[in-house]
Write a structure and sequence with these properties.
Layout lengths: L1 H14 L17 H10 L6 E2 L17 E2 L10 H9 L11 H4 E2 L2 E2 L10 H11 L25 H4 L1
Parallel strand pairs: 1-2
Antiparallel strand pairs: 3-4
Helix pairs in contact: 2-5
Protein name: Cytochrome C
InterPro entries: Cyt_c-like_dom, Cyt_c-like_dom_sf
Keywords: Heme, Iron, Metal-binding, Signal
Amino acid sequence: MRIVSLAMLLLVIMGCQPAANSAKGFSLPEGDASAGKAAFMQYGCVDCHVVEGITSKPADSYALLRPVRLGGPDAGIRTYGQLVTSVINPSHKLAPRYPVSMITDSEGSKMPNINDSLTVTDLINLVAFLQPKYDVEPYPKSKYRTYELRVPEKDTAQKN
């Protein structure tokens, strides 16, 4: 009986290891939420999205019939990785609260692909602006530090 219990415990422990394609451990450096708000405006996100912290436009001035609301506990974003993915790959998972015909066209998501113009810094800041608006699972932030470049000293004795 002890062997069976031990085997079961080992299976449980092994099953808790993150898969190779897991987002566990992934995190961007700390961003600037106010710069993220500016990026939200700069990239035209306000043309289709409503988010807390940005004044809504008149209903008839959005590019969609009804703007897509970002944030909140029922937004379908549960993890930090899902939030980052929704910015860089918007067709990955479409807003469940909206009719498919409203948020897609023949090429997929109506959201323009901004990956060629979005800088990494803008992405970091945009995520810093959006993350507090979602009820995402807490995750440990990576502690980024600066490394000194070490250049090996040349051995002048060998040349002589």
